Prior knowledge:
alpha+beta; 12 helices; globular; DUF3800 domain-containing protein
Amino acid sequence: MESVKLEAIYVYIDISSSRHVFSTLHDGTKILAYIADSINAAYQDHLLTPFTIKDGDAIVGGVSDFQLLLEIYSHCLTVYYSPDFRHHFSEISAVADETLNFYFGAGIGYIDTPPTEDLQNINIVNGSSIINAIEASEKAKIIMKSQQSQKRSALYNNADYFFEKQPFKFYCIAEAKSFGNALGAMFFLAFEKLIKSDKQRDLFRIKDSHPDYSNIEVGTALGYSALSKADISSRVSVLIANSDYFLYKKVRSDIVAYLADLQRMMGGASRD
């Protein structure tokens, strides 16, 4: 029976320093399962391979629509900061104080597998996309453990984009190295460079998750509920005005367009 070759993006998510963060590794597995279940529920109609626990300490899943990569990354941030996540794992100090971090490896390439019904089983699916995702997660780990910050000399000492503000440390490896590098640069610009404070990070995330929220609803989510409605609205307006929010939105739009064009180049059709 002939195999199927399909362009795809797979994501491999691993917890940073899990052996030091948890009293038992079972806690890490429960957190990963929670994130996997959330992604699977949100994108159940679009997944090539549902997100599944891999080797006990990571989750991996894949999509054929490249544009979903940005949505899945943003979804992980929304889950991480959600009250339900904090409540569910409140006994874990790294969750309660928001110091839990993850390596988010994105692999762009192909899968070469038996017929499509087997794509549901991560243990059967094979190809460069999955290999690249695992290697990308390992690369994110190396960067976080070796750099400690974004280095001015990155161009000369093999340093790379250092994700400090976001709990999911992004790295991408593509079939052509330059494609992954360009995507990493755009993610770094959107989720690190254009964010100047924790409040701006939270503002961008809330407006991404709830685009129909009024300024008052955004401000309430930001923790301004003790203020008057007028003060909440004013506080949010000032926060937006002092941020690069609209440039951030443009970079996100450019990422989606880049992913769509990249998929066309690799031989697949993207969504309209």
